Amino acid sequence: MAVTLALCVAGVVLLGMGTHFEQQHERDHGLVLTWANYEAVTGANQRIIYTARTHDGDHFEAGDMKADVYWLGPLDSPSPEPTPEGSHPARFVPADPGMHLPGEGFDDDANPPEGEAGVYIVEGVGLGKAGGWRIDVTARRGDEEFTGSFELIVHDDTPVPARGDDAPRTHQPLPEDPDVNLAAIDSRVGRTQEMPEPMLHDQRIDELIDAHTPFVVVVATPAFCAEGACSDLMTQMEALAERFEPDVAVVHLELWEDYDAQVFNDAAMEWISPGGDREPSEPWVFAVNEDGKVVDRWDHIVDLTLLTQQIEALQNTEPVPLSAAQARGETDR
Predict the structure, then answer these.
(1) Three-state DSSP class for 228?
(2) Is 235 in contact with 12 (CB distance < 8 Å)?
(3) pLDDT in tens, 25-79
(4) Secondary structure class of 163 (helix, strand, coil)
(5) For residue range 89-115, what is the model confidence (pLDDT) as tens digits?
(6) pTM for the complete prediction?
(7) How far apart are CA 45 and CA 329, in angstroms?
């Protein structure tokens, strides 16, 4: 199943880890890799997403790709030698047609790159310490081997709800509320159509928590998302709502209260920028169980296959099973 993604509002911030972390590695050969997550936090079962392109700018797809994970040390005192922290398979997921991927240039529309567009997803990554990390990728395509590296900063904590956190008790406005601004519920209202996907805008989050109903929250701005990617995501979320409600609800939170005035919605900010102390990015998707706990989240890029599996688990009130190796932050090989 294709992956759904959109460019973030704030963009991906370039790493500022110093020359030790920013240097080009001698092992790089043939691949240009771009980290695609909005953030990375410590934990035993993290998800890393990246894109891969050739030095000629074409999309790169390989059936056999391995990601070796290294800890580079604290940001203020990098280690002399990287510490190996595990090896994981990377799974290619094709992108929906017409979407822009992280790492693409502005001339890609005029000069489309060759190959199938998509991202690589690495599951069950153990990021046990805050600081600098490096991902070394090795891929085989036929008899040819390709390598590349990218780096990321891992933080001890994040204000964005993560696995095990209580879900925000959001009391968002609904279309039937008096004097409600419908465009603040879905940014497409008044621009392209009437209230779309009504199933995504008919239940309040705090009431779902009180009713012990599992739910999925998607924070996105369909009218202002690059290349219409969030509109595609909304259509897919509605299909999930039709399939799984009433057992599992699906709720949309619009990012903007007033796009022209650049005012964000309080309801969305409770999820992606609590306290308003960070520039919000979107889309985000959160899965919440019947106890009101976040059991998984997807930032920037949503793998619909994994999301559907998680919803099925919520429907059965069971967590998605992890292998013992994943629980330790490793991957079976």
Answers:
(1) helix
(2) no
(3) 445 568 999 999 999 999 999 999 999 999 888 999 887 899 999 999 999 999 9
(4) coil
(5) 999 988 765 566 666 654 455 455 677
(6) 0.83
(7) 5
Phi and psi, residue 20, nearest 5°: -60, -40
Fold of the 182-315 domain: Glutaredoxin (3.40.30)
Q: How far apart are alpha carbons 169 and 207 in whole angstroms?
A: 8
CA–CA distance, 333 with 32 (Å, rounded to integer): 25
Q: Which tokens hold the place of 146?
A: 């390709």
Between CA 12 and CA 7 the distance in angstroms is 9
Could you tell me which of 201, 162, 198, 145 has the C-alpha nearest to residue 40?
162
Which two tokens mark 216?
């999925």
Contact 238, 256 (CB under 8 A): no
What residue spans in the chain does CATH classification 2.60.40.10 cover? 3-154
Residues of the chain with CATH 3.40.30.10: 182-315
* Rounded CA separation 126/312 (Å): 25
**Which parts of the chain fold into alpha helices (H)?**
19-22, 205-210, 229-244, 266-272, 304-315, 324-327
133, 40 in Cβ contact below 8 A? Answer: yes
Looking from the CA of 153 toward its CB, the CA atoms found within 13 Å total 16
Q: How far apart are CA 287 and CA 47, in angstroms?
A: 15
Name the superfamily (CATH) of residues 3-154: Immunoglobulins (2.60.40.10)
Calpha distance 89→35 (Å, rounded): 16
Highest mean pLDDT among 54-58, 180-184, 275-279: 180-184
C-beta separation of 58 from 118 below 8 A = no
